[in-house]
Amino acid sequence: MAGHSKWNNIKKRKEAVDSKKGKIYTKLGKEITVIVKQGGPDPNINAKLRDAIAKAKANNMPNDNINRCIQKASGADSTTNYEEISYEGYGPFGIAVIVEAMTDNKNRSAADIRCIFDRSGGTMGQTGSVGYMFNKKGVIIIEKKDNIDEDELTLLAIEAGAEDFIVEEEYFEIITDVQNFTNVREILEKGEFTLEEAEIKMVPTMKKELTDEEIEKFFNFIDKMEDNDDVQNVWHNADL
């Protein structure tokens, strides 16, 4: 059931992307902008940019949009500077939450995110208050299909440097450390596997179960957080 539930969540997120393309593309564009300013506009040199481009394409962001973001970020007239910042705390029902943001105004972001925590029955804490409950990992999801040879995929992923290969009812989940993520992703893409998800995530070391009613309320909290323009990612330890 856990695998089925997670796969449904993946599909729902993709449907949400289709219904909120403008906002999603803005967030992806902001991420690309920050990465270009940090490491340059050449994806052959900037591995983080290659990963960000792959993530944008997985979310159906058009190539023209991606290229415009890169060109704008590398241009002399690019004056907007975004700062990466994380917030930690407990959401509804004591769920540990990490919010990753990119903002040009830290005071505004902190106030907005604290308000969402408070109004949802949670509380925003200090840096490190829940971070110890998570590990940063590369996560790749591939849908199970008749034309995929499980043994071939497993061997390819492990030889590329994957830490773990998890077989669920409807998908394969490949876990990597951060340093090997780009290599594993690129090797799988060269093997012509379609990646439903491929990104660096904060993976919880322990999960907390919720009732169906609590899950619905928790999703409302997540939706409010993700609707904030400064928020890039929301990680949590709820077992959905």
Structure description:
About 50% of the residues lie in helices and about 25% in strands. The chain is of the alpha+beta class. The strands form three sheets. A four-stranded antiparallel β-sheet has the order 3-1-2-9. It has a four-stranded antiparallel β-sheet with strand order 5-6-4-7, sandwiched between helices. Strands 8-10 form a two-stranded parallel sheet. Helix 2 packs antiparallel against helix 3 and helix 2 crosses helix 4. The radius of gyration is 18 Å and the shape is globular. The termini are close together. The model has no long low-confidence stretch (mean pLDDT about 90).
Rounded to an integer in angstroms, the radius of gyration calculated over CA atoms is 18 Å
C-alpha end-to-end distance: 10 Å
Structure annotation, total helices:
8
> What fraction, in percent, of the residue positions are helical?
40-55%
Oligomer: single chain
If classified by CATH, what would the architecture of the domain at 2-74 be? Answer: Orthogonal Bundle
3D shape:
globular
Strand percent estimate: 15-25%
The fold-level CATH name of the domain at 2-74 is Arc Repressor Mutant, subunit A
**What is the name of the CATH class of the domain at 2-74?**
Mainly Alpha
Q: Layout of helices and strands, plus pairs?
A:
Elements (H helix, E strand, L loop, with lengths): L1 H18 L1 H19 L7 H12 L4 H12 L8 E8 L5 E8 L2 H14 L3 E3 L8 E10 L6 H11 L3 E4 L3 E6 L1 H13 L6 E8 L3 E2 L2 H16 L3 E6 L1 E2 L1
Parallel strand pairs: 8-10
Antiparallel strand pairs: 1-2, 1-3, 2-9, 4-6, 4-7, 5-6
